Amino acid sequence: MPVFGTLVVVGPGLIGSSVLRRAKARGDLAQRLIAVDSSEQVCARVRELGIADEATTDITTAVAQADCVMLCVPVGAMGAVAATVVPAMKSGAVLTDVGSTKVSVIEAITPSLRADIAYVPAHPMAGTEFSGPDAGLANLFEDRWCLLTPLACTTAQSLHDIRSLWERCGARLREMTPSHHDRVCAIVSHLPHLLAFTICGTADHLAAETRSEVLDFAASGFRDFTRIAASDPIMWRDIFLANKTALLEMLGRFMEDAKAMGRAIEEDDTAYIVSRIEEGRAIRKSLQENRQA
Ligand SMILES: NC(=O)c1ccc[n+]([C@@H]2O[C@H](COP(=O)([O-])OP(=O)(O)OC[C@H]3O[C@@H](n4cnc5c(N)ncnc54)[C@H](O)[C@@H]3O)[C@@H](O)[C@H]2O)c1
Ligand SMILES: O=C(O)C(=O)C[C@]1(C(=O)O)C=C[C@@H](O)C=C1
């Protein structure tokens, strides 16, 4: 039995097209799949890939047919998209989103909400450095966490249905408050991206200044940073600005710890250096045991 009659995915990029692929592959997420994108090129590609029953730029006509609308656009676009989508939705339908930040997305969407539309904010903690409809994978969410931040306007039925949808995508589910979500993601996702973009920039500037070949020797350690540094600039600009408070708090904590490591190196404090490295190794091991690495 499908969770929804018609599921409309707005923004069938990496995340949206992964949901569509999973829905096509299983057949029990929704009876009918509609992809909506502001780009006609993206819609044409979705049609070629055959991952939706319909792909259109006509957002209001599409969402009027939806039992569930899933917003998969960059977090900075969520408010404007919701302002167009919500008035056109039919009574009793469910609105959900996959944004990487929750407080700002909820604040942006809330002014458009209606009493007869249930809203379930969600965030699948899975992705890659690639974007667009070609980047999606039917198994992207397998064994990954999907974080849900239910609100007063999240009915029990809508929460149950969105939980079922993500379970059928293979995800593990956890519920938390939006502000807790943003602090957690600031440290495990947003700060690592900030560090990756920064270290690549620093190495690149050094190479330019010294006209040297430093980057030619960027083999394994540095290469691992370059994977996430290849991520989409618009998506990450939006996330950094949307989660400013939590991200700056984590950046401050990180800078204190990095300075402490610097002092330990300066002072040949071997015990401190070893204990921090051992902490890092223990975290990697626990992720592996939890099948997250
Ligand atoms: N990439 C990840 O690793 C990841 C993981 C979890 C959640 N997210 C979140 O999912 C969302 C989508 O990320 P993605 O990586 O799939 O992005 P993406 O760039 O692959 O896809 C976004 C799509 O939205 C479309 N779009 C943009 N503005 C639009 C608008 N106003 N109306 C209609 N369509 C519009 C774009 O044309 C594009 O096709 C973001 O909110 C992001 O924070 C991303
Ligand atoms: O694996 C990656 O490349 C990702 O960037 C995925 C990642 C993450 O940082 O873990 C990125 C943003 C999301 O909101 C969720 C997942």
Automatic annotation (TrEMBL):
Q: What is its EC number?
A: 1.3.1.12
User: Recorded GO terms, molecular function?
Assistant: NAD+ binding; prephenate dehydrogenase (NAD+) activity; prephenate dehydrogenase (NADP+) activity
EC main class here is: oxidoreductase
Which domain of life does the protein's organism represent? Bacteria
Note one Pfam family from the annotation. PDH_N
* Key words of the record: Amino-acid biosynthesis, Aromatic amino acid biosynthesis, NAD, Oxidoreductase, Tyrosine biosynthesis
- Residue stretches making up the Prephenate/arogenate dehydrogenase domain: 5-293
Q: Give the pathway annotation.
A: Amino-acid biosynthesis; L-tyrosine biosynthesis; (4-hydroxyphenyl)pyruvate from prephenate (NAD(+) route): step 1/1
UniProt xrefs under InterPro entries: 6-PGluconate_DH-like_C_sf, NAD(P)-bd_dom_sf, PDH_C, PDH_N, Preph/Arog_dehydrog, Prephen_DH
Q: Which reaction does it catalyse?
A: prephenate + NAD(+) = 3-(4-hydroxyphenyl)pyruvate + CO2 + NADH
Q: Which GO terms describe its biological process?
A: tyrosine biosynthetic process
Which protein family is named in the record?
Belongs to the prephenate/arogenate dehydrogenase family.
This protein's name? prephenate dehydrogenase
Q: Which organism is it from?
A: Acetobacter garciniae
What are the leading ranks of the lineage? Answer: Bacteria, Pseudomonadati, Pseudomonadota, Alphaproteobacteria, Acetobacterales
